Amino acid sequence: MGDHNVHTATNEKTRLNFTRNLLDDLEALDQMLREGKIESGIVRIGAEQEFCLVNQNWRPAAKALPILKSIKDHHFTTELARYNLELNLDPVELTGDAFTRVENQLTRLLRKAEKAATEQNTKIVLTGILPSISTYELRKEFMTPMPRYRALNEMMRKLRGTHFHLHLSGVDELSIKHSSVMFEACNTSFQMHLQIEPEDFTSSYNWAQAISGPVLGLCVNSPLLLGRELWAETRIALFQQSIDTRGVTQTLRDQPSRIAFGDNWINGTIADIFKNEISRHKIILSKHIEENALEKLKSGDIPKLQAACLYNGTLYHWNRACYGVGNGKAHVRIENRYIPAGPTILDEMANFAFWVGLMSGRPSEFDHLPGKMSFKDAKANFIKAARTGSESIMAWMGEEIELNKLVLTRLLPIARQGLEKRKISKPDIDRLLAVIEARAQSHTAAQWMTRSYRKLRTALKPNDAVIALTKSIFDNQQTGQPAHEWPRQSIPPIVQGAATKVGHIMTTQVVTAYMNDMAELTLRIMEWKNIHHLPIVDHKERLVGLLTWTHMQRFNKKKRMEDYSMRVSEVMEPNVCTAEPSTPILEAIALMKEKAIGCLPVIQKKQLAGIITIKDVLEFDKD
């Protein structure tokens, strides 16, 4: 749970106070490690559940704040966007029915949230990326109005120095600029925490890195973004690019990212990890801190290391080293940040048990990974898993092996041994690992979503397909069955009222022309492609005119084919009525009727974003 009482690190006095406390925190952490004041001999687990809120049309619902107010439970907190919330589970000792207790609390709290959401005509969806999210909901107006998020956005933009640029390539391609960190709000995850023995932290962290690729590859469920089919777990690339503060320079300079897998196996203690990060990344958030960690330690109390924890919260490693205090005792833990939310509670708990089992069951031969496995292999496995999921080929301890085979023959036995070592109840072990085994033998949630979306697109427009898929995810979640048991997607009736904005129905694959293009060629292209409305743009993709079927008919009457001198600028209509993605569809229909026109080019930030025609709005016109 992030600290909300923060501000940008620009005030000189506050920044100096924060920096001094940050240095004292690290000295205090070193001292606690030397003196054995970090808790050991007990292992606990915990988790954070992020989830999406959708309205009756299956689109993001900006109801987080009223729902949070209605819930009245300290386990819940805000997220970056007003259509997401997060709940934080209580730590549970890793023994006996630990996973059942975590699952029961998660179920109870989600039901509490569902009740509050229902009062706001809102539903809860567990998924890594909500298929129905559009650029309309990624505007800054949808950011939760709290100091932490405003400060984070301000500092990220300042460090970046220009717009963020998102470019993802999978089966489809997505390339877009954005002026805020709001694309990060597309991501929702199930973050898992595991307490680690302080003296074993280095080996445990390196092992967590080594198994990240195989674990991620079997847990993927985020293959779509804005209707594009991208990576099996698109969240990985999306998160990194959406808040990447690095600028592009003309020098071949390696600039570390705040969102990273890492560059090498770690050495030393958790304090050394913190020191390494501070040497690589600027302080971007700060707060006034009255408690001095060294003085607190000297008086016999355990410090919270507020400065170090706040700083650590502005770094987004997929495996994050964490320090915390509970029941008056300090502990260290690893936070797994790469697992997506959902698609069911059972899927999440199976993922949790699989990861914790692997961490607990680490064979002694992997205590020193630098001599056993190349770090580049571990990192490559992670990227491959994000791209292609369970279809990946893993580099594992010098061997090339299919991910599913690796899981079934090597990793599942280790996970089982690890859970047995922690004395987890046999029914929980059997029940949860059976989900992982069946998934490896069948398919992941990402594969189900991809196949379902492709089938939906054979009969539905892109907007209707993402709405139908979102509804199907929700409906299947209600059954409680894990995703590999979900039925094949059928073509549902169109959800009436799901599209309300022009951006929901506009065509984005638009053929355009320039003013100086040859009129004859441009009009021939319209004829070949059966295009009735063709926008004319300048070289910055700004709309400057429009060609229509009527123009082509007039041109054909006046000009012969042998006349190649006429340019598009001589034929086009320069005065064009337009809409924006946020324009209500009914308003666009009224404008088209008033002006007696058959199309509206859609403009966003002065550039052409798409086009809608009479054909696109017929189903919405009730008059």
Name the features.
Creatine Kinase, Chain A, domain 2; CBS-domain; 2 domains; two-stranded antiparallel ribbon; eight-stranded antiparallel β-sheet; alpha+beta; 16% strand; 623 residues; single chain
Question: How does this model look, in words?
Answer:
The chain is an alpha+beta fold. It has two domains: 424 residues, Creatine Kinase, Chain A, domain 2; 119 residues, CBS-domain. Helix content is 41%, strand content 16%. It is built from 20 helices and 20 strands. The strands form seven sheets. Strands 2, 3, 4, 5, 6, 9, 13 and 14 form an eight-stranded antiparallel sheet that branches. A two-stranded antiparallel ribbon has the order 1-12. Helix 2 crosses helix 3 and helix 5 runs antiparallel to helix 10. The chain is globular, with a radius of gyration of 27 Å. The two termini are 50 Å apart. About 1% of the residues have low confidence.
